[in-house]
Amino acid sequence: MGDTATTHHTKSANNGANDNQIGFKSRVSVIGSGSWGSVAAKLVAFNTLNLSSFHVEDANMLVFVTPHQFIDNICKSLVGKVRSDAEAISLIKGMEVKIEGPCLISTYISEQLGINCSVLMGANLANEIAEEKFSEATVGYRNNREIAEQWVQLFTTPYFMVTPVQDVEGVELCGTLKNVVAIAAGFVDGLDMGNNTKAAIIRFGLREMREFCKLLFSSVKDDTFFESCGVADVITTCFGGRNRKVAEAFARNGGKRSFDELEAEMLQGQKLQGVTTVREVYEVLRHRGLLELFPLFATVHEICSGCLPPSAIVIYSEKKNIFPV
Amino acid sequence: MGDTATTHHTKSANNGANDNQIGFKSRVSVIGSGSWGSVAAKLVAFNTLNLSSFHVEDANMLVFVTPHQFIDNICKSLVGKVRSDAEAISLIKGMEVKIEGPCLISTYISEQLGINCSVLMGANLANEIAEEKFSEATVGYRNNREIAEQWVQLFTTPYFMVTPVQDVEGVELCGTLKNVVAIAAGFVDGLDMGNNTKAAIIRFGLREMREFCKLLFSSVKDDTFFESCGVADVITTCFGGRNRKVAEAFARNGGKRSFDELEAEMLQGQKLQGVTTVREVYEVLRHRGLLELFPLFATVHEICSGCLPPSAIVIYSEKKNIFPV
């Protein structure tokens, strides 16, 4: 593995002594890093008795929870080393939306390793879960309800509630698109527009998320947006989180300081996922001639790229939204 | 009219000179009081040219926007004085939920005056609309789309966006039930549970709102909860508003000071709608043997009435919600 691989750590848990809880003899490996990686490992450890040394070859449940830019190298390093009957789950937020179609991380893992991959998303800021404050999440699965139930059991603790939904694409896309809505919400905060406006913008965003997901995958279900990965994650991200925060600063500066500059100052050079995602979303919509149906997404990108002032978030989103999508 | 009637004021607008905007010659009367009444009159006035003296007999569009406890006397005073072809719209939040069924204010107006009644609800804190900050609302109508479009045109301004939905019951019930969710959110705030928990509780609340509405009226549409009256109004009410505020104080005091006491101190003796509504909702659910399917609503009432401590909001809502409604 390259440079990136050195930053991830792995933990595994053999819950053979705890069959009733997971329902079958399994070895779980958490392939992760960062605060979310640590918290995920803690949740999994609660449901398994023995933490032992790590051998990917033995694991039949693989939990991926790395920053999204590391997943390429990690997958490449695992090719040929994973049991063919293993199941994976991705907790990684931030797939790429390419013009030829979205590149879901779950699909990428699945294709690279030749195994099925579910996803876990939701309103779960890592630091609050670390404090064992009540949180929840959504597991998106493809076909096999039993596998979904196993993931639910693996992650559920007295303070962490997990709900399965048969909609892997909808659940995974929510985890990325919410960052675009958070940028819009941050603009509203920076413009001091008030609660009504912010709620309206969040609602427009949630609707556009739903329509965009359905545009890409006709299988996506409306009900997914009532799950933790949908409305709840949008709320936490629009009231906390760094996408909202930097967007607020951008609007307070009247768009005169670029996102690049603010990211360098406020995030020590890390990039905002929302800015990247909305550029990709914009390209997809432009390519398909559908920009007019997604006024909020389009306007967020036009503001981020300096083509429109921050105040356009209301004027444009409203004008185009007078007749619902 | 009795004492209450003296507190309401009326405004009317003859928009004969402005036919194109409303689409037909109409006389609009706003029967209202309070800050929301004033703001509603301002919105209507924007779309009509001449404010003139008020004669109910002449009006064919009646806008009701009074505190809900006044509507009985107002309707009684209007019996026999309203044109039979008049159309009404209620902006009043706070119908009663009786065991024999909910008593919607739109239905009450309709039955008392023998005219059709639509509703207008949404994420619209009056003071922010008064400042002309962008807000939106949902018009719930029964059958006639043309009437809905007329109400939309009457209320729409550059800073106020209105969307019609054919679901009068769903829209009206949202305007009342959101206050119950706001009390739950206030408890979470008072317990310092954090963003994840609050988002989870808001989501549980939104789902129970939807299920409760569908239980009472099978015609209620899922999509109504994606409108301003649904998710957006729930967000504004759970982050602002007095139901949330008093519930937060209740939780901070560990439930040792009653809602009666806090209302007297914080609201100058006014009563919280959410506390009344959730008691009514609880009775309906108990009567139908459905309390277990609505753990959040049930727990909010049990906390408000002193049967459970504020901390129960998470423990109970979560336990019962492990398997989705």
Automatic annotation (TrEMBL), chains A, B:
A GO biological process this protein is involved in? glycerol-3-phosphate catabolic process
Question: Which residue intervals define the domain Glycerol-3-phosphate dehydrogenase NAD-dependent C-terminal in the entry?
Answer: 167-314
Upper classification of the source organism reads: Eukaryota, Viridiplantae, Streptophyta, Embryophyta, Tracheophyta
This protein's GO cellular component annotations are:
cytosol
**Catalytic reaction(s) noted:** sn-glycerol 3-phosphate + NAD(+) = dihydroxyacetone phosphate + NADH + H(+)
In this chain, NAD(+) is annotated as bound at: 70, 126, 242, 271, 273
Q: To which protein family does this belong?
A: Belongs to the NAD-dependent glycerol-3-phosphate dehydrogenase family.
- Top enzyme class, one word, equals oxidoreductase
Catalytic residues identified in the record: 178
The Glycerol-3-phosphate dehydrogenase NAD-dependent N-terminal domain covers which part of the protein? 56-145
Q: What is this protein called?
A: Glycerol-3-phosphate dehydrogenase [NAD(+)]
Q: Name one GO molecular function term.
A: protein homodimerization activity
Q: Give the EC number(s) listed in the UniProt record.
A: 1.1.1.8
UniProt binding sites for substrate = 93, 242-243
Keywords, comma-separated and alphabetical? NAD, Oxidoreductase
